[in-house]
Specification:
The protein is mainly alpha-helical. The protein is built from 2 helices and no strands. It has a domain of 42 residues. Helix 1 packs across helix 2.
């Protein structure tokens, strides 16, 4: 039986991540951005080939007092959903 060539694992490269947060989140922004990137790395979108200059997601409504981790998880889920659901 012939060996099947190994396929490279799909990768997601994010050149920059711009997140608009409400006033008062200035000290939390860097951590939320890092956690969002970690969430995307841990649970990447479905594999496909594409170069996208910009991916926008609609504003998210989160509960008051949400942790940095839960905000990052919601952001990553919205980004994955936008990528998995296709782009205009």
């Amino acid at each position: 039986m012939a060996d099947t060539p190994a396929r490279a694992a799909p990768t997601l490269h994010v050149a920059s991540l711009a997140i608009a947060l409400p006033a008062g989140f200035e000290r939390r922004a860097a951590r939320i951005g890092r956690l969002t990137a970690e969430q995307l790395a841990a649970h990447p979108p479905a594999p496909r080939s594409a170069t996208l200059p910009l991916v926008q997601v609609p504003p998210l409504t989160l509960r008051r007092g949400a942790s940095d981790q839960s905000i990052a998880a919601a952001l990553a889920a919205a980004i994955r959903g936008r990528l998995d659901g296709g782009l205009p």
